[in-house]
Write a structure and sequence with these properties.
about 0% helix; four-stranded antiparallel sheet; mainly beta; globular; about 220 residues; single chain
């Protein structure tokens, strides 16, 4: 099941106690192999799990888009934090998701308050086989990023790329920019985006603040 393959801390219910999201990307869901699950353990004054019942998140249940399918590996990567307006947000990568004829093109799920949406790379590119969008995810109060280590760039397979979104406005995040190493830089097997990390650029960052993104 690989419980703990990904972990992230945040305050999802804004009670002042830290909560923990834990990915189990090879968890079987209703007999569907390796569909993946994310467990959210809620904090309390008595500690993690000492208060309200936690959440069990899978695709196709309780408002989470898509369906649990074999090999989706939902929960391979998780990122969480507080938005610029103080709401807890959670990002979940499912790099094994198929979309149409594109196998393992990948998606990411975004949850914040009443917003529960699925994002892919179609806003800034094309969903293709083996892109593995969502193999890595990260976020700041104003931005999100998802790695696509399998992306082909200028004919170079598995060169990799990263998609960046903004989540400063109400509703679903919006696409900002696609990043890759470009002509002359991308090479086969670079796997750019295999890891990503993001933080606010300034400690006083507002809802329209900037972010620093580091890409492996």
């Amino acid at each position: 099941e690989r419980f703990g393959a990904s972990v992230a801390g945040f305050d999802v219910n804004r009670d002042g106690c830290g909560d923990l999201a834990v990915g189990a990307p090879f968890e079987d869901v209703s007999g569907v192999a390796d569909a993946g699950t994310v467990f959210v353990v809620l904090g309390s004054p008595a500690g993690l799990g000492g208060g309200p019942a936690g959440l069990v998140l899978v695709q196709g249940r309780d408002g989470t888009p898509e369906a649990a399918e074999a090999g989706d590996v939902f929960g391979s990567a998780v990122a969480a934090g507080q938005s610029a307006t103080g709401e807890g947000y959670l990002v979940i990568g499912a790099p094994g998701e198929d979309l149409g004829s594109a196998v393992d093109t990948g998606v990411e799920h975004y949850r914040r308050g009443t917003v529960n949406v699925m994002l892919d790379q179609s806003a800034g590119g094309v969903n293709e086989t083996d892109d593995r969008f969502g193999a890595s995810v990260t976020g700041s109060p104003s931005h999100l990023a998802a790695g696509r280590p399998g992306e082909e760039v200028n004919g170079q397979t598995f060169a990799g790329a990263v998609s960046v979104f903004s989540h400063t406005a109400a509703g679903a995040p919006t696409f900002v920019v696609d990043l890759n190493q470009g002509t002359g830089g991308a090479a086969t097997g670079d796997l750019m985006g295999a890891s990503v990390s993001m933080a606010p650029y300034r400690s006083t960052a507002t809802a329209t603040g900037e972010s620093v993104l580091v890409v492996g």
